[in-house]
Write a structure and sequence with these properties.
The complex is a heterodimer of chains A (138) and B (141). With 138 residues, chain A is an all-alpha fold. Chain A is built from 6 helices and no strands. Chain A has one domain. Chain A has helices spanning 2-20, 25-32, 41-58, 81-97, 101-106, 113-137. Chain B contains 6 helices and no strands.
């Protein structure tokens, strides 16, 4: 059942990313280009996505998910250097390439080989991160 | 495509519904970098099928929709340095920050999570500066 739900959620997510324009790097870079020819489309994507999720979160108190005992616990309120530095690195790469992790996957099947190069580099970065974090914490 | 904002809004709603399905079905936060990252770095090896099937859905659905639309272009950079540098930054950054546009952005903001909102402010600012530097100052994108 959990596997089926995952597949369904992934399929709906992929459809949303595709039709919203999130897989179009020019659109993403246009949205981030606040000093140039700004494209507001992505505000509609983010706003549209937050709406159902807001309702979904509001309904959670006192209830439980279909296949689990608990909803995800509240995250810590602390905003640490890790969150700030990681998000800044991510944003720099997002602006440079126009792709974030979801659209990087959603464009693999039709975007061509250049998308696979980006995806491979992104996965390499993800695999390297635990070692990088250990290096800096030492 | 004309009326881009209608497609943006419709696609956005689907993304939100997907997050709601994942939350109410599996009790999990739908974050693309977390689902993929846990799979490739081995930290979630007991959930490989669940996570793998999510990714299968994300990859396959656009392939099914693609033939229905004409003139789909991702405008991806042909510059290998941009692709590899950008990919590394996105991969490392999202794992260090424990989330990306879907986890911190969509799921975090909608929960009014301070961490999600702060992360989104940081990566949007960095993204704006990145486009300013690489497009308008260096001219590589």
């Amino acid at each position: 059942m959990r596997n089926l739900i995952s597949l369904l959620a992934g399929a709906v997510f992929g459809a949303g990313l595709f039709i919203s324009g999130m897989t179009d790097t020019a659109k993403v870079q246009g949205w981030l280009d606040i000093f140039g020819n700004w494209d507001p489309t992505l505000a509609f994507v983010l706003g549209g996505a937050i709406l159902p999720m807001f309702v979904a979160w509001r309904m959670t108190p006192g209830r439980r998910p279909l296949t689990a005992t608990l909803f995800p616990p509240q995250p810590p309120v602390r905003i640490d250097a890790r969150l700030a530095v990681g998000s800044a690195l991510f944003g720099a790469g997002w602006g440079l390439s126009g792709l974030c992790p979801g659209p990087a996957m959603a464009s693999l099947a039709y975007g061509g080989s250049l998308h696979w190069i980006f995806f491979a580099a992104m996965v390499a970065g993800m695999v390297l991160t635990p070692s990088l974090l250990r290096m800096f914490q030492r | 495509m004309e009326a881009d904002w209608i497609w943006g809004l419709a696609g956005g709603l689907l993304i939100g519904f997907a997050g709601a399905i994942y939350l109410w079905g599996n009790g999990r936060i739908m974050g693309a970098s977390g689902i993929l990252g846990g799979l490739v770095d081995g930290s979630a090896s007991n959930e490989w099928l669940e996570r793998g099937l999510f990714i299968v859905g994300v990859v396959l659905m656009p392939a099914l929709l693609y033939p229905l639309f004409n003139e789909v272009n991702t405008h991806i950079s042909p510059n290998y340095a941009v692709l590899i540098g950008g990919g590394l930054l996105v991969g490392i950054g999202t794992r260090v920050a424990n989330g990306c546009t879907s986890g911190h952005g969509v799921c975090g903001i909608s929960r009014l999570s301070l961490r999600g909102i702060a992360a989104t402010v940081f990566y949007l600012l960095a993204g704006g500066v990145s486009v300013l530097v690489f497009r308008h100052l260096l001219g590589v994108i």
